[in-house]
Amino acid sequence: xxxxxxxxxxxxxxxxAAILDKSEWQISGTSRSIDGVEAINARGYKxxxxxxxxxxxxxxxxxxxxxxxxKSGDPVLRQFSSALKAHHFKxxxxxxxxxxxxxxxxxxxxxxxxxRPNGERGQRRVNAEREWQAIANLPxxxxxxxxxxxxxxxxxxxxxxxxxxxxxxxxxxxxRIHVEDIVGVLKASIAKPNPGQVYNVADDEPCPPQDVVxxxxxxxxxxxxxxxxxxxAELSPIARSFYADSKRVSNARIKTELGYxxxxxxxxxxxxxxxxx
Length: 277
Hints:
There is one protein chain. The protein is α/β, with parallel strands linked by helices. The protein has 10 helices and 13 strands. It has helices at 11-19, 34-42, 75-86, 119-133, 155-160, 179-191, 209-220, 237-242, 252-256, 267-276, and strands at residues 2-7, 25-31, 46-49, 62-65, 91-97, 108-109, 140-145, 147-149, 166-168, 176-178, 198-200, 227-229, 248-249. Helix 1 (11-19) crosses helix 6 and helix 7 (209-220) runs parallel beside helix 10 (267-276). It is globular.
């Protein structure tokens, strides 16, 4: 029996757990709260309270970390660095972000691009990647993710609840990815591990963010919200940081090396499917 331990059991980890064959896999996950542990258990998995987990269970064969770094570094590595070095895994994955590349003025970049993030949050991710890569004998794979959407977390929902905005910043290009394609890539990597590899996990059509809002409004048959110049937009510091970077992210490696075919190659296909479901 294979055993996947997910450090952090959020959006992506939950969807990965859901597609793995339960006759072949044992699934465990960590949470910072008792409520979170209970929610993991309620899904039929084994939940652990992160701060009380003293060691990695010996039965674990695969690990996935989606825990973001904080000001002091990566929480998983702070607590489990020695265990990660001592344990023999078949596959390990760290979910990072395409924010590590920084701003490229809309240019197309791939996994060989220099890491030059904007701001402290991006630098934390670069540091975390390097810390994970420094663990000897860990069969690590890094997956760099852009904007994630999927069931319950998409522009259809933001339009319906009135929070969608069309913020216009000249030349701004984002990549995005449907969560089902994230977990499809992870599953393909588990089947064909290549320790040390880095993958961009993005769809085929980077575009200005306002285009996605406009299309969601078309699907719902409502008028789009007014365009707001970026300079006049009221944004949180985190939201504003997303607009600091403009780039097109190449997804060629997941196709050529893993043989992965995107289920949702662009936001239109993704939103169409979400509306029907």
